[in-house]
Amino acid sequence: MNNYNIKMTLKSIAITGVAAILFFSCKPAVQAPNSNQVPLVSPQGIAENFVLYYTETPELVEIPMEVAMGAALKKPARLTAILRSEKSEDFQHLNFPYRTFPDGLVLEVFDASGNKSVIASDYGIIYSATNVIDLRGNVVITTHEGKVLKTPQLYYDKTAEWVYTSEKFTYINPEDQTVMDGKGMDFSRDFSILNAHKTFGFVTVKEETND
Q1: Which of 6, 40, 147, 205 has the fewest Cβ atoms nearer than 10 Å?
Q2: Would the pTM count as exceeding 0.85?
Q3: CATH for 47-57+76-204?
């Protein structure tokens, strides 16, 4: 092969290489599958005007031996909470079962005396295995005493009867006429125990008086 043919061959190889580079650089990048991504699944059922009642497990009361040997009498179950939602999607068929409320929900919680507190949010998830409710979007808690907590996300542990959030919050207490802003809070469902993780200060709420 003479020098002319060698130069033409090298030139052809160079042109082909540049064309290949341009061709592959114009193709969209293909992302590798992410093992952390949750696969898309469909609910096994969709319910409208969904209502779920929570009751306290009845205690067992021993009956005197002369009445019945080893017998027991159950106390009536106590209603502890009612969850209402316009729409519920059922994913209970999965390994980690849950139920979603894409249109929001309202949770009414009752204490031992029957006093009702109300929790509302734009979106909700109930994790059946852990009995935890994940509330998201404009979460507002209003107690029977008029105390109000506002936060973008909040968790309610039904088993422990404990509520907690790591997000910013606003807490309004009409008893001492204060408004508290902070980040991170956990408390009992009746607000008798309240732990604010970080606070930004208190603001006194002045009552309006009519002359």
Answers
A1: 40
A2: no
A3: 2.60.450.10
